[in-house]
Amino acid sequence: MPCPAPRTPAAERVADALIPWYREHARDLPWRGEAFLHSFGAWGVLVSETMLQQTPVTRVIPHLAAWLERWPTPAALAAATPAEVVHQWANLGYPRRALWLHRAAGSIVAEHGGRIPRDVDALLALPGVGEYTARAVAVFAFGDRHPVVDTNTRRVIARVVHGREQPHPPARRDLDEMAELLPDDDQDAAAVNAAMMELGATVCGARSADCAHCPLAAECAWHRNGHPAGEDRRRRQARYEGSDRQARGAVLRALRAASAHALPVDAVLADWPDAAQRDRAIQSLVDDGLVEAFAHELRLPR
DNA sequence: CTCCGGGCTC
DNA sequence: GAGCCAGGAG
Known about the structure:
The chain has 302 residues and is an all-alpha fold. It folds into 2 domains: 1-234, Endonuclease III, domain 1; 244-299, Arc Repressor Mutant, subunit A, CATH 1.10.10. It is built from 14 helices and 3 strands. It has helices at residues 9-25, 34-51, 57-70, 74-78, 82-89, 96-112, 120-124, 131-140, 151-160, 173-179, 186-202, 221-224, 244-257, 275-288; strands at 263-264, 292-293, 297-299. A 3-stranded antiparallel beta sheet has the order 1-3-2, with no helix packed on it. Strand 2 and strand 3 form a beta hairpin. It is globular. It binds a DNA duplex (10 and 10 nucleotides) through helix 2, helix 3, helix 6, helix 8 and helix 9. Its cofactor is [4Fe-4S] cluster.
């Protein structure tokens, strides 16, 4: 565990306001509460956090239940084929995450006796597990004390602590800033981590800030200064319509619809407007291990 | 820094 | 149509 950073009085006030607010207003999500942790434990947390990477909560919920019913343990998932895994991932997006989770399950079985590691560095070594997911598992599955920083946390810190509407792009420093807000007690620290994400998701949004219902309004530098606009350092997201990503998605959707069966190459996106783009998409899917290519056929990988 | 899904909202 | 979403890898 990292050594507790010294807390300022302001940091203590933030935690003192956040914890009761969270107990009162937290959404009733499936991965909160004892039933989930008791049934699925750290594996359920790892699966849910992976699905939640860049995919909204409301879309994850039904897929998570189905996934854990089919593969209730890392060993069960490790025994599946990539084709089954990619098919089950369905339309959650960024399907490389499904392969990473599959490979992580194999590593958990081979190197950790089938149990999810508790150590952050061991978690970080798993494919598809980065700074956010590693600490989310350590904190929400095992109850340890670490800073957990996601897009919500970064935005809340930018506003409350720095008085800026928008956060800078993700940086290592974010972890230190969050660590400075954490109480010494493990459970309180976990609650503050969860509450910062919840606040950003439900009250202090990217598009709208409902300061009238915010437990941190009295502490918030951005609110106190009258919501200054400030400069916007966000990077613009590439256009999706007509992109290679869209082509990849269409190829994979066709192969999922064919289940594990192979499809003739010419039948996959036969009417795609840009043939070169279609071929580029297929090649990149093969490179990622999401598609297997034969002389004239494609299929999900076995 | 760029790439990587897909659905929903403003 | 553009931005956003419990990010991660190369």
